[in-house]
Amino acid sequence: MAVLCFVLDLRSLSPSLLADLKQLLLQLANLYAVSPSLSQSNALCDRIGLCYVFNNRISSSVELKVAYRPSGNLSLRDFHHAVNNLPTDAFSPEFKESGALRCCDAKLSIVFSDQVLYSWGDKDIVRKVIVLSSCLPENVDSALKNTLLDAADKCVSIEFVLFEQKSSHLCNMQEHINSFIGCISDLDNCSFQTYLPDVKVLHGLVKRWLQDLKDDMEEPIQARFIFKSNLFGSLNQITCSLSASVNQIIDGFSPCQTCRCHGIPLSSTVKNKIKEPLCPITSHDLEKFDVIENSVKVGENTVLFMPSFQSSVKLQRMSSPIDFKIIERTPLGSLNEGVIIGASYVVTPSACHEIETTSDEIYQTELNSQLFRGLCSALHSLDQGLLCSSYCNVETMRKAMFHCYYILQPSENGPMLLRRLAGSEEVLPVPDVNRFIDSSVPKEIEISIQTFLLKIQSRDYNPVVHERGFHPKLNSLVKESLQFGSLPTELSDKKFEVNSTRPDSAEVPPKSNLAIDIVVLEEENAMFDLTAGEDKTAASIAEEWEQLVVSEIPNRFSPSCVSKPKLDHSVPSPPDNNRQLDEKTSRILERLEVPTQLKSKVVSPVSTSSSISDVCMSKKKPLIPFQSSQASDQVTTSSQLMKPNFQRLKRKYK
């Protein structure tokens, strides 16, 4: 990352070239504004400075002014204001007798000072000065030489950019270029580039300078391509550098609310009125006047304050069908695979549903299918595709504020393929490849590589035979996890309301005020499965007793066993002895057997509440349940459970 200082020599820049350079600077700031920031404060540091040199007509002197001084976080609004207000009438070229353009001092000594460049950013930050002009100084005098040397001592790089003009008076420009290059050739911190003022050239400059500004730019990824056998001699690998070809940008701008004190967006919970607004910096409560409602987020770190919400539209989710407008035909050979981004989509003709479909709809569907096949066949024969435009990002299925470009590629006899293409703002410059393209390959290396390639198996690509190994890896993890064993079932205390009627399978609806703490024992529940074919009434009674006695064994040390209100629960009459007891009833009776030490005692239980209290206290002396004063004289308690008798309920026939 670096701080860039642009110095424009307005004396030599024509109005048309100056207009193009203004757009270049604005595009650079816009792309930098939507770039993600890796700093902890999530703020985008201001790293662009702007100066210009002009002739002061009043004082008849050459002056340098600072149009924009970077400080703190990026202010996109102020930078746009500075660029748009550059003087447009400062073009005043001076010519020699030979007709060549005369260029005077660019006042670089003022730029390399503590008041301008060295006051921007920290001391250890990288600085770069870019001089944009259409002329060069005739010679590098001692003052300019000392300025450049001093910049080299402070690790400041300087790039001289010359825009060549196709004019008759510039016939001897090459001589001046060679002379200037010779003067700065011994300075490692200086570079010189000449460009034609073309739109494509300016676009490439924007992307190159953007890489200097962004803090997430790293060195290219180093990679090795390893072969199964030696490629040449004892070498079986090629080392390469990997660089991204596309930097995808956002699809639009989103409205937001900001605090008036710092201009920082508020959280989404405040926007949705879930919480009261707080300042993100001080965490102080914000009144209605302290919140700026009309704000727009540009990227993640840049905010613009707007007069209204009309300038921003929330990105909405798109619904089918999506419209793609055909722009032009494109030869597939000219398509750069490096600009393809996102997922690819298989395109097939729509099919109609046979249910509730009229004959006319069936005819239209068949005609649509024939048109699709005809278009696919024609494009394939021409080896061309269709360039399309849409306002929908198919990958996110949301509406975009900007154009999304797609290429529709045909096949011979099958479906077509829809692929997303990067826009001009998203394409990154290609690394310099001239250094190895111009070099020739020795004949022996060529022969060795051709022989080696013939040894590699060649076959049509089939994705089915190229598995990534997902299933074997996951199966191995699961197999290893099974060796750990199963986790014990966690026992949790639950509270149920006891009801005299038959409880539901999921919960017991409350009828009385009695609340019993229960430990659910899944093992005992599994032992008491109902037998098919039993009488429904007997099963109902058995299930009710199972809920009260067998399944709902309270915790021995549960505080709920200390005090329980009276339970109004009737006891069923003895069952018919001739009927054989089912397995579940036998289990219940075994649980209700009187303890051996209490068999000698004879007690007449009165209520079910006393029986439940005895279940709570198997070792400790049973406590008397809590009862009202009116009922305390009438109800007796017992420490012994009652042995219940079951009988079929008789139905009353009316």
UniProtKB/TrEMBL annotation:
Record protein name field: Uncharacterized protein
Source organism phylogeny: Eukaryota, Viridiplantae, Streptophyta, Embryophyta, Tracheophyta
Domain of life, source organism: Eukaryota
